Amino acid sequence: MDVIQIAKVNILVEFTHRSSFKSLDKYIVDEIAEYSILTKKDYAIELPDVEPIKTEYYDLYKTKDISIQIQKEGNTLLGYIIYLGKTILLKPVVDTFITEYLLSQYAISYIMAFNQALIFHGSSFIYKDMGIILSAKSGTGKSTHSRLWQKYENVVVINDDKNILKIEGNDLICYSSLWSGKHQLDNNVAKKLSCIVFLYQNKDNVLTKLTKIEAFKRLITQLVLPTMENKELWNKIMDKLLELPIFLLGCNMEKDAYLTLKNGMDEVCY
User: Fold this and answer.
1) CA-wise closest residue to 22 among 95, 78, 101, 99
2) Is the pLDDT of residue 146 over 70?
3) Which of 13, 77, 103, 265 is 20 to 30 A from 54, comparing alpha carbons?
4) In 3-state terms, what secondary structure has residue 206?
5) What is the dotted CATH code of the domain comprising 119-268?
6) What is the rounded CA–CA span in Å between residue 18 and residue 16?
């Protein structure tokens, strides 16, 4: 077992595939845990006698005392997530690292929502003391574009996939975690968020500053969806996001793509 700190929250974790969580050691602290995420393959499941909330990815059985999430991929049952207050149990049916990673990712999202934080999909880094997130649909090339910044600006990567956005005072802080996509590229750092850039593939490099309405339509596809419990928090974080300069970059994967964005951000953000 290890105690890790994510966005200033201490969490006891026990994973079957611990060695495959390549970044875990970066987040270990010698402190008391407030929450627990534990893989328990032998846990006996008894579904509550309630009508489940059904989504494309899971079915959620919820009562006052316990919630059980049945995680699936198409017609394949991947596993269960059992929410017991501040203890979350993972029961994988498909016993692989990928399944445990996915189940624990839901668990960390649940914990963060109770600590003024939500998950935002994108590749983030620190440039000129600013937190920047590149966001797009999976497969668009945000990680590839981030590598251009790493090559030409030597930026510090925050997280390559699941960023944790947390309100602190009047600021929105971008935190990292060990849930950072297939490349598991992250550092245990945090920075005030200064800018978001949505990417799409294009032959030529074209940068546009989005209006708030245009930005909102794109932000809702990448910020974890609200629930009844975190709707107020979701609205607060969305309001903070809409205060930021938000760009749309049509780009190829050449050096000029990075330069187009750099020049635009230097003019507006810095």
Assistant:
1) 101
2) yes
3) 13
4) strand
5) 3.90.228.20
6) 6
